[in-house]
Amino acid sequence: MNRRQILRHAGGLGAAWVASPLWAQSSGRIVLGQSAALSGPAAALGTQFRLGAMLYFDRFNARGGVNGRTIELQSLDDGYEPDRCAENTKKLIDGGAFALFGYIGTPTSLAALPLATQARVPFFAPFTGAEALRAPFNRYAFHVRGSYFDETGEIVKQSTAIGIKRIGVFHQNDSYGKAGLDGVVRALKPLGLEPAGLGTVERNTVDVDAAVKSILAGKPDAIVQISAYKSCAAFIRAARKAGFGGTFYNVSFVGTKALADELQQDARGVVVSQVMPFPYAPVSPLSGEYLAAGKAALGDKFEPNYSSMEGYVAAKTFAEGLKRAGGAGTTDALIGGLESLRELNLGGFYVDFAPNKHTGSKYVDLTILTADGHVRR
């Protein structure tokens, strides 16, 4: 992927992005297939994840790839809709994708995983923390991020530690929102608590008025949001206009930079849980490497964020698994290579897989947004 293509993708142009027809694996390329939101209300998540992955894959390929074979990431746009994702997945599998990589979202990943499993194609690093993709154990599914149970557990732990007991939940009315709601309920239960008000929004919409009314009726002191950035931003503005003065918490899937960009000065004080290292400064070797790669590819146009950091981490982990798979070039060899990544240190961030453990990380950090669009730890 050259500089012009990266810039085009970073700008979010085009409803779909496919570099070229799928190549046979014997052609000297290892083809990965991705279905992601590259257009629509969740487009920033897919475009940024893909950008981060390509920052790593481009450097990896320039250094000779693995055994002389380079990685090609083929991406199709699903608009964050499960039916489109399922159709894309069939096309990618039928086209000969060696593995599926970096799917964006819970409902889309849930539509794709059974197809990948049936075809015995590895499903690597979906951008979701849903437990339904982690349990029961699936030999073909690998996760490099913490789960929504990990994130909501940390949110509840931190909020109740400072005396917040009344916690409402605003969630997307689908499998993603339900996964986050289940996490909050699960974390509150041992404390003898339950959500103080619930409200939903339909996927890819910003019709939040009914949710605001329903949740504020429960008089919460904090509200956990489990939705995409546009609907979360709309809810925050509407809830504040209605008089809510408490704290908003979001899980990582919201897209931190996308949410900050949507809210602008209204972002002040919004908390977002993170499952990736801090991407805005070289506070770890991995962050420094990521920033250097972005600067080399895009110069001053590079805007670091958590979504592209996750793509970078996913790509780096996958490439390491490929190297350890050796020259066999089979699915079993790739799975074996990935399962050998025990306490893999990517530069201050660890991924730990094993033959019966495909959830690589439980890392969670809480960050807070400022009125000028910055992120503080």
Walk me through this protein's architecture:
This protein has helices spanning 3-10, 43-62, 82-94, 106-119, 148-161, 175-188, 209-216, 229-241, 256-263, 285-298, 306-325, 331-339, and strands at 29-36, 70-77, 99-101, 123-124, 141-142, 167-172, 198-201, 222-226, 247-250, 271-274, 344-345, 350-351, 365-369, 375-376. With 377 residues, the chain is an alpha/beta fold. Strand 1 (29-36), helix 2 and strand 2 (70-77) form a beta-alpha-beta unit. Helix 3 (82-94) packs parallel to helix 4 and helix 11 packs across helix 12. The model is unreliable at 1-24 (pLDDT under 50).
Give the SSE layout:
Elements: H1 3-10, E1 29-36, H2 43-62, E2 70-77, H3 82-94, E3 99-101, H4 106-119, E4 123-124, E5 141-142, H5 148-161, E6 167-172, H6 175-188, E7 198-201, H7 209-216, E8 222-226, H8 229-241, E9 247-250, H9 256-263, E10 271-274, H10 285-298, H11 306-325, H12 331-339, E11 344-345, E12 350-351, E13 365-369, E14 375-376
Helix pairs in contact: 2-10, 2-11, 3-4, 5-6, 8-9, 11-12
Top keywords for this entry?
disordered N terminus; 5-stranded parallel β-sheet; globular; 15% strand; 7-stranded mixed β-sheet; 41% helix; alpha/beta; 377 residues; Rossmann fold; single chain
Short structural description:
By secondary structure, this protein is α/β, with parallel strands linked by helices. The chain has helices at residues 3-10, 43-62, 82-94, 106-119, 148-161, 175-188, 209-216, 229-241, 256-263, 285-298, 306-325, 331-339, and strands at 29-36, 70-77, 99-101, 123-124, 141-142, 167-172, 198-201, 222-226, 247-250, 271-274, 344-345, 350-351, 365-369, 375-376. The chain folds into two domains: 3-146 and 280-363, Rossmann fold (3-Layer(aba) Sandwich), CATH 3.40.50; 148-274, Response regulator (Rossmann fold, 3-Layer(aba) Sandwich).
